[in-house]
Write a structure and sequence with these properties.
Blueprint lengths: L1 E4 L4 E4 L8 E5 L10 H19 L4 E7 L15 H9 L3 H18 L7 E4 L4 H13 L3 E4 L2 E4 L15 H4 L19 E5 L19 E2 L1 H13 L3 E7 L3 H16 L4 E7 L2 E3 L2 E2 L10 H6 L4 H9 L7 E2 L2 H19 L11 H16 L4 H13 L4 H15 L3 H14 L1 E2 L3 E5 L6 H15 L3 H13 L2 E6 L2 E6 L1
Parallel strand pairs: 3-4, 3-10, 4-5, 10-11, 12-14, 16-18
Antiparallel strand pairs: 1-2, 6-7, 7-8, 8-9, 12-13, 15-16, 17-18
Helix pairs in contact: 2-3, 4-6, 4-7, 6-7, 9-10, 10-14, 11-12, 11-13, 12-13, 15-16
The structure holds adenosine monophosphate and zinc ion.
Length: 483
């Protein structure tokens, strides 16, 4: 598989450090509010990446943090703790807020078929890990204490910027508009590893540490949790592109200074979901959630398809009009699959299966080209082979796509079979299968009966019987099965 690596700015062949396991880390949500569908775009695409790796035969261990402390309103280590802000807004404790929005996040993930990572770790569980890392950074001269806090000293690094070639001044936190400079910092990009009393007296969550009672900075969480569960080397670290700087840049700075060697090989960043007015963001207040889409009648998986239709390294603009188009595409796709006739136990057309799978896999291998992978679904539907093989191929693709293609098609088939036809007449297969030809004959028999042409009605019944189809007249319709 070739993946674009933000750290090297090119597509590279993915090779894990250890052949038997892919170690993957994902920045999890800050649980002070619902996730918006922009956040969920990142998680959908990361889910596809994990599933594509598993599809290729890799064994994956994926770890995600839950940020329930330490993420301040500004990247510049200033402003209120986001969790505290959420708790105040809702008149609840920080832990209640964290639990509520963590559950809400995983509810959304379930609706979007995002697999739960193998390890999910709240940041507040790992205070000892952070203290261990910070202590060594202080010993090694990569950190300093000032004004009650512990800071990472970026001047000790040969190279600080990893992901962008921007002019330092552009990125320097201290010079951004509206952000007051922290006078304790020796260098403008230094960041807090541990807060003590400083400016946040009313911090609800506090722990003892060698530097006084306080709480960890946001960046140290991800380094600590990753190393706790995955050790000192990482194959893939993912997150939204807004996390590249300063969050991931700082993660690399502190992790590599602590370890004394390279930490993570591949950095995968998902680009933003935007609205017409710009980036969707939690702190801006107005944002779209999965529940909102559901309340407007959208299937959450139509949103998943919406994300899969575009490449993860391009910004994606959300509008209801675009989502309507995708919802219609999804409906049609499911209807086409529903028209395939399952014939379980039939021999598989292995050559067709392999040819279709090859195109699908090649699309994923090319930096996760999900829109091309979707076209492989249409190729399968059109391919000259039997329906059972097509269904087997589509079930195989859905291990990565996660669109419930087979389940939704089966449901649709049942609905079609049970739906009363014109005149309130239901034609129901006793096994749940659908066969448009049989259904048309049954309807013709019903029409003949209505026209009192009983001879014709009996003739059709006999014809179906000769084909091995047995009919039972029931109130409001006919049930049929194969003898
Ligand atoms: P947060 O809960 O704010 O820590 O963000 C959770 C994830 O969503 C992170 O990986 C962010 O980089 C990502 N993210 C934030 N905003 C967007 C957006 N508009 N589009 C895509 N991903 C986003
Ligand atoms: Zn992180």
């Amino acid at each position: 598989m070739y993946l674009y690596n933000s750290a090297t700015h090119k597509k590279e062949e993915f090779v894990p450090n250890h052949p038997d396991i892919v170690k993957m880390y994902t920045c999890g949500p800050t649980v002070y509010h619902y996730a918006h569908i922009g956040n969920l775009r990142s998680y959908i695409m990361e889910d596809v990446l994990e599933k594509a790796l598993r599809y290729e035969g890799y064994n994956v261990k994926r770890v995600m943090n839950i940020t329930d402390v330490g993420h301040l309103a500004s990247d510049a280590d200033t402003g209120e703790d986001k969790m505290l802000k959420g708790a105040k807004r809702e008149h609840k404790s920080v832990m209640e807020i964290a639990q509520f929005y963590t559950d809400a996040f995983f509810d959304d993930c379930r609706k979007l078929n995002i697999k739960r990572p193998d390890v999910v770790e709240p940041a507040t569980n790992c205070i000892n890990e952070y203290i261990k890392i910070i202590s060594r950074l202080l010993e090694n001269g990569f950190a300093y204490e000032a004004g009650g806090n512990v800071y990472f000293d970026t001047s000790k690094l040969d190279k600080y910027y990893i992901f962008n070639d921007h002019d330092e001044e552009d990125l320097a936190v201290g010079v951004r508009e509206g952000v007051e400079e922290d006078v304790n910092k020796r260098n403008k990009n230094d960041f807090v590893l541990w807060f003590t009393k400083s400016k946040f007296e009313d911090q609800a969550l506090k722990w003892d540490s060698p530097w006084g009672v306080g709480y960890p900075g946001w960046h140290i969480e991800c380094s600590g949790i990753s190393m706790k569960h995955l050790g000192g080397d990482l194959d893939i670290h993912c997150g939204g592109i807004d996390n590249a700087f300063p969050h991931h840049t700082n993660e690399i700075a502190q992790s590599e200074s602590y370890l004394g060697h390279k930490w993570c090989n591949f950095w995968v960043h998902v680009h933003h979901l935007n609205t017409n007015s710009g980036k969707m963001s939690k702190s801006k207040g107005e944002f779209l959630t999965v529940s909102l889409l559901e309340s407007k009648g959208y299937d959450p998986l139509a949103y998943r398809l919406f994300c899969l239709q575009s490449h993860y390294r391009r910004n994606l603009v959300f509008s209801y009009e675009n989502l309507d188009n995708t919802a219609a595409t999804y409906e049609k796709m499911i209807a086409k699959i529903a028209a395939l006739k399952p014939n379980e136990g039939a021999p598989m057309d292995q050559a067709a299966f392999d040819a279709l799978k090859q195109k699908f896999q090649a699309a994923l291998d090319n930096d996760l080209n999900t829109s091309l992978a979707i076209t492989a679904v249409y190729d399968a539907l059109k391919y000259k082979t039997d329906d059972q093989t097509k269904l087997a191929v589509l079930a195989d693709f859905d291990r990565v796509l996660g669109l419930d293609l087979i389940e939704k098609a089966a449901k649709k088939r049942k609905e079609l079979a049970a739906a009363p036809k014109a005149g309130g007449f239901a034609i129901v297969s006793e096994t749940g299968e659908s066969d448009p030809q049989v259904e048309a004959q049954i309807q013709a028999r019903q029409d003949a009966k209505k026209a009192k042409n009983f001879q014709e009605a009996d003739r059709i019944r006999d014809e179906l019987k000769a084909q091995g189809i047995e009919l039972t007249d029931v109130p409001g319709g006919v049930k049929w099965k194969r003898a």
